[in-house]
Amino acid sequence: MSRRSGYTGEGGDSIMSWPRSTSPTSSEVRLARQADDPWYIAYQDESTQWCSQRMDLEEKVANLGDELARKNLMIFELKRIVEEEKKNSELIRKEKLRVETDLVVFDQVVENLEHELKVMGEEKSRFILCSFIRCHPCPSSYVVLVDDLV
After folding, report:
1. What is the model's pLDDT at position 122?
2. What mean pLDDT do residues 88-101 have?
3. Region Disordered: what ranges (predicted)?
4. Is the pLDDT of residue 99 over 50?
5. To 5 degrees, how large is the angle CA 24–CA 28–CA 32?
6. In the chain, where the domains are located
């Protein structure tokens, strides 16, 4: 084979002598040579395996990305719930303080009312006694001062 004649095919014909319409392109010639090369076949098999593994890894990465996005949304939702619960807890604490304050005031009012009822009862008792004594005069020896009764 001479340099000028180029690649000689199986039939001994030079590629340069093929008619232009049916002549193979350089990539076709290269592929024809590579198809018979056991090293190239092994390389292609390994390359196919690598591509397959890469696609599997890319799919796993995409799935992990989706899972990460879902977990981030869950974390965001949990943070929102925690903040809402903190606000509710603060509102409950304030309401508890208000109720406790109201209870203290109510206890004081009850004490004041009890004291007023006691005083009113004493005054009413004195009034009834005085009215009774005025309506039913008795000898002076039986008259007891109202202050001594209470």
Report:
1. 78
2. 95
3. 1-29
4. yes
5. 115
6. 25-137
Compute, in degrees rounded to 10, the torsion defined by CA atoms 81, 83, 86, 87.
-100
Q: How far is Cα 22 from Cα 20, in angstroms, rounded to an integer? A: 6
Return contacts of 142-146, CB within 8 angstroms, 24+ apart: none
Q: How far is Cα 79 from Cα 75, in angstroms, rounded to an integer?
A: 6
Q: Using alpha carbons, select from 112, 123, 113 the residue that is nearest to residue 150.
A: 123
Confidence of residue 135 (pLDDT cuts 50, 70, 90): low
Mean pLDDT of the chain: 76
d(CA 116, CA 113): 5
Residue 75 CA to residue 68 CA, distance in Å, equals 10
Mean pLDDT computed over 74-94:
96
**Residue 80, SS3?**
helix
Average pLDDT over residues 64-76: 97
CA dist 18 and 25 (Å) reads 11
Token look-up 């869950």 returns 74
Structure tokens at 37: 């090369």
